[in-house]
Design brief:
Length: 228
C-alpha cells in the first residue's frame, strides 16, 4: 500500500493508529482472561500484529524496518508456541484448558526450558528478536504520533503479563494435575529439534540482527524517499 497509495497512507495514518491501539488493548484484555492455551497464543498474535501494522505506517525507516523484523520474529516465536501448545501438550493430554497443565516442570523439564525461552520472546524480552522489532516499531510510532505511541507501548506491559502468567500456570502452580494419570514423557527428539531451531533463531538474531537489518535498509530507505 505504501508505494501504491503514498498520500493516502500518510494522510490517514491516524485512522490506522487508532484501530491499532484499540486492537492492542482489546486483544490484550481478551488474552488475560482466557483459559484456553491455544486461544491465548492466538490473541497474543493479534496484539503483536497490530504493533507491526502501526509500525509500517509510521513513515520512518526505524518503524518500517521494525515492523518487518517483528513480523519475522513473531513467525519464529508464535510457531514455536503453537507447537508447544498443540503439538506437545494437546497431543499428550487432549485438552487445551490451562488448569490441567499445572506443575509441568516436574514431568517435562526440557520442554519447560524451551517453552520459557519462547515465552520470553513473546513478551519482548531483550536479547530476543521480538524486543528489537517491538522497540523499533514503537519508536517509529512515537516519532509520528507521540500520544498514540504511548498507548501502543502498553502492549509491552500486557504481553509480559499474559505470557508470564500463562507460563507460570502451566509449568509451575503446584503439583501436576491428577488429569495426567499416566506418566507423560518429555519432548521427543523430533519435538526438541523443532523447538530448538526456533529458539536459536530468535536468540541469535536478537543478539546479532545485522544480517536482517543490512538487507532491509536500502529497500526501506528507497521506499521512504520515493513516497515522500
Amino acid at each position: 500500500m505504501l508505494p501504491l497509495l503514498p498520500k493516502a497512507s500518510i494522510n490517514y495514518t491516524y485512522v490506522i493508529y487508532v484501530i491499532g491501539v484499540i486492537t492492542i488493548l482489546y486483544a490484550s484484555f481478551s488474552t488475560l482472561r482466557t483459559i484456553d492455551i491455544k486461544e491465548l497464543i492466538a490473541y497474543s498474535s493479534v496484539s503483536h500484529a497490530a504493533v507491526y501494522l502501526i509500525g509500517a505506517f509510521s513513515n520512518t525507516i526505524q518503524g518500517i524496518e521494525g515492523s518487518i523484523v517483528l513480523g519475522l520474529a513473531h513467525g519464529f516465536v508464535s510457531s514455536g508456541l503453537f507447537i508447544c501448545a498443540g503439538g506437545i501438550l494437546y497431543d499428550r493430554s487432549s485438552t487445551r484448558l490451562i488448569t490441567y497443565y499445572r506443575g509441568m516442570a516436574q514431568v517435562m523439564p526440557i520442554f519447560s526450558v524451551l517453552f520459557f525461552i519462547l515465552a520470553l520472546g513473546n513478551s519482548g524480552t531483550p536479547l530476543t528478536l521480538n524486543f528489537l522489532g517491538e522497540f523499533m516499531s514503537l519508536y517509529g510510532v512515537f516519532e509520528r504520533m507521540p500520544i498514540l505511541g504511548v498507548l501502543a507501548s502498553t502492549s509491552i506491559v500486557f504481553s509480559a503479563a499474559y505470557t508470564i502468567f500463562m507460563y507460570n500456570r502451566i509449568v509451575f502452580g503446584g503439583s501436576y494435575s491428577l488429569y495426567f494419570v499416566e506418566n507423560i514423557g518429555d519432548v521427543t527428539r523430533r519435538e526438541f529439534i523443532m523447538l530448538l531451531v526456533f529458539v536459536i533463531l530468535t536468540v541469535l538474531f536478537g543478539i546479532y540482527p545485522a544480517p536482517i537489518l543490512d538487507g532491509l535498509h536500502y529497500s526501506v530507505s528507497s521506499l521512504i524517499y520515493n513516497v515522500n
